[in-house]
Amino acid sequence: MKCKSCKKNLSYTLIDLISSPIANSYSNHKYEIQKWYPLKIMICSDCWLVQVVNNVSEREIFKDNYPYFSSISKSLLEHSKLYCEKVYKRFFKYEKNIKILEIASNDGYLLQYFKNKKNISKILGIEPTPQAAKLAKKKNINTICKFFSYKFSKNYKNFDLIIANNVIAHIPDINDFVKGIKNSLSPKGVATIEFQYLVNLIKKNQFDNIYHEHFFYYSMISINKILERNGLKIFDVENINTQGGSLRLFIKHKKNIKFLITNNVNKVMKNELDLGVNSTKFYKNFAQKVYSKKNSFLKLLLKIKEKNKIIIGYGAAAKGNTMINLCGIKNDLINYVVDKNSYKQKKFLPGSCIPIISDNMIKKIKPDYIVIFPWNIADEISKSLSYSRKWNCKFIVYQPNIKIF
Q1: Where in the sequence is the domain holding 95, given as residue range(s)?
Q2: Are residues 245 and 358 in the same domain?
Q3: Which of 141, 212, 256, 309 could disulfide-link to 252, CB 3.0 to 4.6 Å?
Q4: Radius of gyration for the chain, computed over Cα atoms and rounded to the nearest angstrom
């Protein structure tokens, strides 16, 4: 098996989760037969890129009925609004005829905040899933429903800002993708990339971010090698709170002398070297910690169920499906999962076949416990469900620690 980036042999296994269905492949029928695919994660000891070794094709994952819509999360909308204001003020406030491209623009959740800026001449979203692209177009955001690639980039050039948030993990040919960004970026342009941070995944045991959609798990060390190989350079970096802890990179052409490299880049890189991200020791015992968390979570649910309490889940999230299928949970333990997304309602979670219902059913069911699967926005969700306290309902999260509150 060879590294998908540098093509060197892979020899070190981070964790083998055996097999799982595609995390967002919701069933229309309870007894629908589903494919389970191997889910093994390995580390390249040459470029230190963490990767799934048995890939499902991106077209099989991001089908026409792909059900994820970014605008459902209020915290993500607020994050996107702040991003827009910050990037605009820093780089483009006094420029003219700014052209902006967002890759994996989803339902227009982010690009909508650039629409009221007078000096922006072009806004374009690239979104491969038809339902999300359709919603973006309803917001009058010019959106092309295709996968971004180097070939695609040949007809879309000289963008002053290219945005690629929470997408590079989903790209199987990462070198082609980065080559495309370079090709579409204007000579003095800025590209920003956000991704869930590998250091948090390892140190905080965020194993539920492992699923087939995520072909790669990036550190600063590994992404820097890919960018440099393809003629791009990181000139600034920020730690941000989204998705349980992410990095935001600011990227330029190597030959662009307009932007100086900040101390932040050296700080993050030094921190990773100090942690030993470029050695197998950093990844040791990760699998053991995963199974320990799994066992503790399952024991808690079984203990609650023994008291004849009603447990439901909130959020038919991909990360939740990883946890549910790892634990072997079915609907005799968690009766339902609630989700605000109407495209997921009246369907069944992949693997577990737990029914997905509307959030207005919570008051009818009156559960004793609600497991919040999108734990990264647990505060937002628990506040929206505060009415359930009237019948003494409690919330459960399993990340960063198992907690009842």
Answers
A1: 70-256
A2: no
A3: 256
A4: 21
pLDDT for 358: 97
CA 277 from centroid of its chain's CA atoms: 21
Per 3-state DSSP, the chain is made up of helix, strand and coil in percentages (nearest 5) of 35, 25, 40
313 forms beta bridges with 337, 371
Q: Which tokens go with 68?
A: 């994820």
Closest CA to 209 of 242, 244, 167: 244
Whether residue 305 sits in one domain with residue 247: no
Percent of the chain, pLDDT > 90?
Answer: 90
Q: How far apart are CA 290 and CA 118, in angstroms?
A: 50
What the block records as the tokens of 167 is: 């997408």
How many angstroms separate the CA atoms of 367 and 362, rounded?
Answer: 7
Q: What is the largest CA-CA distance in the chain?
A: 66
Distances (CA, A) of 309 to 119, 267, 302, 361, 362: 58, 49, 10, 17, 15
Say if residue 83 is in the same domain as residue 201: yes
Residue 65 confidence (pLDDT) above 80: no
The number of C-alpha atoms within 13 Å of 223 and in the hemisphere containing its C-beta is: 30
List all residues 6 or more positions away from 24 whose beta carbon is below 8 Å from its beta carbon: 61, 66, 67, 68, 213, 318, 321, 350
- Side-chain half-sphere CA neighbours of 312 within 13 A: 23
Residues with Cβ < 8 Å from 252, sequence gap 6 or more? 188, 189, 190, 191, 232, 233, 235, 258, 259
Residue with tokens 């960018």: 227
CATH number at residue 195: 3.40.50.150
Closest C-alpha among 20, 15, 11 to residue 318:
20
Question: What's the pTM value of the predicted model, to 2 decimals?
Answer: 0.92
As given in the structure block, the two tokens for residue 324 are 């549910």
Q: Tell me phi and psi for residue 333, to 5 degrees.
A: -105, -50
